[in-house]
Amino acid sequence: MNDDTLLAEQAQAVREMFERIPFNQALGIELDEISTSRVVMHLSMKPELVGNFVHGILHGGVIASLLDVAGGATAMLGVFDRHRHLTEHERATRLARLGTIDLRIDYLRPGRGKRFSASAVPLRAGNKVAVVRSELHNEEGVLVAVGTGTYLCG
């Protein structure tokens, strides 16, 4: 299997897992980019996501969720890559165990905007744990929040 085929298989696995999570659809998160070096996704502002109704600012929980989902997708790519030698069923079993152990969010600015993009890059991918760094920007490129997530990787 060449690298392009592997990446396509990884991206498809992440996309399928992502689309099966109802919470992602409830927030309106959409995947933009999946590569071995980063994951990018976005959501559009809607009234249900407002935390500060006076100023129309994105809820902090939505910010944390979006950064966590991006981080989890990035960790999932690492699991897939480390276990490429396993059968599809064995890999799926490992991916099903993936979960957030710790998540730190630094809220840098109020979540003002119409569209918010989260990007995540791996910092460390070990046998049991992955650490991922995520950033959230609005449509004007303003950095709203950063996060560091630690994920159990089965």
UniProtKB/TrEMBL annotation:
Pfam families for this protein: 4HBT
Domain of life: Bacteria
Single GO MF annotation: fatty acyl-CoA hydrolase activity
Keyword hit for Hydrolase: yes
Coiled-coil features, chain-numbered ranges: none
Keywords, in A-Z order: Hydrolase
Naturally occurring in which organism (per UniProt): Stutzerimonas degradans
InterPro entries listed in its UniProt record: HotDog_dom_sf, PAAI_dom, Thioestr_dom
Reaction(s) the record says it catalyses: a long-chain fatty acyl-CoA + H2O = a long-chain fatty acid + CoA + H(+); a fatty acyl-CoA + H2O = a fatty acid + CoA + H(+); a medium-chain fatty acyl-CoA + H2O = a medium-chain fatty acid + CoA + H(+)
Protein name per UniProt: Medium/long-chain acyl-CoA thioesterase YigI
Protein family according to the UniProt entry: Belongs to the YigI thioesterase family.
Gene3D superfamilies associated with the record: Hotdog Thioesterase (3.10.129.10)
EC number in record: 3.1.2.20
Domain named Thioesterase: residues: 55-144
